Each structure stands twice: as C-alpha cells, then as structure tokens.
C-alpha cells in the first residue's frame, strides 16, 4: 500500500472512513446469512466504523504492513453479491493473498481480477446448501456468575441467523423473590465493571420469567437439583448444558444434568476430574467425538498455555520447563482476611500478592502426553480483577534466537489451526488492561521474549474471563455439531507442520 502524502492524509482517512461505513450493512447482511467476516482473525460483525478501521491497522502486526479499505472493500462487495453457504471468511487473508499474486496491479484491473479470484476461492460454498441448518442447537447456561454471564453475551452475539448455538435458558438456585432476582440478573448482564456495557438491548419479561436479549428469549429457571428440571416443558430439546458453577467436576456429578428431559450433553467450564475428557479448542478438538456426552473445557490457564506449549514442543522440542502465572484475583478469594479452604487464599485479595498452587501443569500432561512430567508450576494471585499472565521458562532441545522464536509464533498466530488460540503482539507498551476483551486463549508478548541458547522465557497474556469464555464457546460449537468452512483454507493445520526454519 502506498502511503498518502501529509497533505492528503486527512482526505484519505475520510475516504477510507466512508468505505468502512459502507462495509457495515454488507457485513451485517452476510452475518444474518451465517457468513461471518473476519480480517486476519478479527471478527467484523457488530463493529463500528472505527473498529473496522482499527482492524485494518492491526494487520501491520501480522503482515508487517498495513491494509487499506480501498483493497478490502471490493473483495467484500464481491462476496456480498454471491449466493454463499454458511462459512467463516477472512477478507484480510483473501486480500493479502490476492495482492501478493497481483503485485503492482492497477485499480482499473483490480475488481475484474478480484472477482475471478474470490469466486475461485469460494467455489465450494457458492450456490451450495452445505452447512445450512434447519434449526439451531439449544443451549442452557447453568449458573450466572462471571463466566455464565460472559457466555450469555457471546452466545447472543453469535446468534447470526438463529441457526447456530441458541441460548434458551439460564438455571439458578431459587431466590426469595424471583421477580427481583430477574431484574438484578438483567442489570448484571447489562452492565459489567470490567467488560463494559452489553452490546445490544435487554428487555425484562416478568410474566414469562425471561430476558429478551437482542431478540433471543432466555428463560430463567430456578432449581436446586439439575435432575429436577423438565426442559421440554420450556420448549427446550436436545440441549447442551453449559455448567459454569463448578459444583460438580466429575462425570458422576455432571451426569445429574442428563437426567433432565431435554438435556443431551454437558460442557463444564473448568478442568474436569477423573476420566472426563478435557478439550482445549484448537489443540485436541479432534478428540471430541459425537458420542461424548460430558466434556470439560479445562481451565483458563490451561487454555492459555497449552497452545503455546504445543507449538514450542512441535517446533523445537521441550526437555523440561516451569510455569508461573501472575493471575488476577477471583471471587473465591476474600476481600478481607478470613478463613478459606485453600492455603493463603483467605488473605485479602485486594491487598496482597497471594502465592498459591496451579493445577494447569498437571492438566498439560493429560492434554499433551509427550510433556507429562516435564513441567512444574505455581500461581501468584495479584490485586487486579481480570487479565493474567503465564510466564513459561522452557529448556529446549536445541539452541534458538529470540527472532527465530518470535517469527515462528507470529506465523502460527496467522497460518495455523491455532490462530484463534495464539495471539501475538509486537507492542513495547502493552499492559494487562490492554487485553481485556481479547478473544485469544493467550497472546504472546514478543517484545518480552528471552532466548539464551537452549533456554527460553515466554510471556503470555490472557483474559482469564472473556478469552477463556471464547474458548468454551468454540468447544460448545463443536459439541453442537456446528462447523463451517474457513475461506481461504489454512495452508497448514498443525503447528508441527510449520517448522521454525520455514517461518523465520
């Protein structure tokens, strides 16, 4: 892209602003057809003009170059004019690939050649009914705490044409005053001190004990025992129950959900115990089978570190390592000193650094058997309400450089099946609050990377609430049988196939 002169910077911005504005109705129309538009992994639906322009600027971190709305707008316009089956389409990658193959193309030829290119890339979904669903998959969120409310936000956001995951209910313990409780729950969903306001409208329907969120009717069901609920009575059938309470963490306990008419599968939003499958989306999703009824999405820290650990082990081999998490405090800690079942966690979360154990390293061995017994770990709870950091001290099988490590991880963040799991930043100024709302499982802070021979230290930021909830939704989609083609197709789908020498 040719940069404008200083005299033309402002007119150029206004032209690009107008193009971004004209993209919004096209993106929205495609979204309602269950065609989701991204730009290098950043979703563009329900975004403002400035958000879309910022997404274009983000590309410079990935491609070492900016991307212009002048380049992406024709691509989007072509897509909007086609009869497409449901899909996830990355116009950033489509544009980058097209520009790379047509270096120096004149704008007069751009549209004609781009039309041919886009049709070729989308051939499998043009005039196709593959992936078109007759109805959505019913979802019930069991519990309405930090993760439960974020799950609701995400599920409402991803409703699309109404044939994906469709949240039908929330289940809570019976309150003294159901009407008052419903209104309080609505307020908590509408306003969040960390994640901001709900993006949309919420209407309280007291008569039907429901919240209507962006047109989604979400019933509030009160029960003490999961097995006592008849979901069929609420018009809910073959539902996926997302248990965000943590009250039951083994198969026996979570099986109570399946005693309820209308419930078919259960997804736990923390690490499961015993023989339960723990799934980290993008890492071992292939182990999730249609017959699996009860599955865990593992913990937030496990989701943050496992993709990076897999990448490093695939690319360089890990002999051994240690993980330290600098973790935001959670609501199981005390605001003031008091008793607690865990050591040290009884001390004031707002006033102390609290050293505690982390179970994430033991989970790594279950998810990546090749790393079993090779990692140790601890956690330090710190006085911030959200966003944590995992510090990975790794001993590799060969000597490496900082540049080699960073280029390899940057490439994976763009070109692998773990694109949505591994984020990457080149900024020298980022701090924890900059990652609130980040949708990746973890974001590699490339500036902080240390490499000394075979010894490497990686710093991985993660939104332990929202980023983790995004991972849970990805597992839920697979459990619900929702899978759309990705356009353009990834050149490689496994970090083990993206060798460091190729990425550098």
Which short descriptors sum up this protein?
13 helices, 21 strands, eight-stranded mixed sheet, alpha/beta, 3 domains, about 500 residues, Rossmann fold, globular, nine-stranded mixed sheet, Dihydrodipicolinate Reductase, domain 2
Q: Could you give the topology of this structure?
A:
Elements: H1 9-32, E1 35-39, E2 42-43, H2 49-63, H3 69-80, E3 87-90, H4 91-101, H5 107-121, E4 137-142, H6 146-157, E5 165-172, H7 178-190, E6 202-205, E7 210-213, E8 216-222, E9 239-243, H8 251-254, E10 263-268, E11 277-278, E12 294-296, H9 300-316, E13 318-328, E14 354-357, H10 360-367, E15 375-382, E16 388-396, H11 402-415, E17 422-425, E18 442-445, E19 450-452, E20 455-462, H12 466-479, E21 486-487, H13 500-503
Parallel strand pairs: 1-3, 3-21, 4-5, 4-9, 5-8, 9-10, 10-12, 11-12, 13-15, 17-18
Antiparallel strand pairs: 1-2, 6-7, 7-8, 13-16, 14-15, 16-20, 18-20, 19-20
Short description:
The chain is α/β, with parallel strands linked by helices and 504 residues long.
Task: Briefly note the structural class of the backbone.
Answer: alpha/beta
Widest β-sheet, arrangement of strands: 6-7-8-5-4-9-10-12-11
What's the rounded overall pLDDT mean? 92
Distance between the termini: 23 Å
Tally of structural domains: 3
Give the low-confidence spans.
none
- Write down the CATH topology of the largest domain: Dihydrodipicolinate Reductase, domain 2
Outline the biggest β-sheet.
9 strands, mixed
Tell me the Rg in angstroms: 23 Å
The CATH architecture assignment of the largest domain turns out to be 2-Layer Sandwich
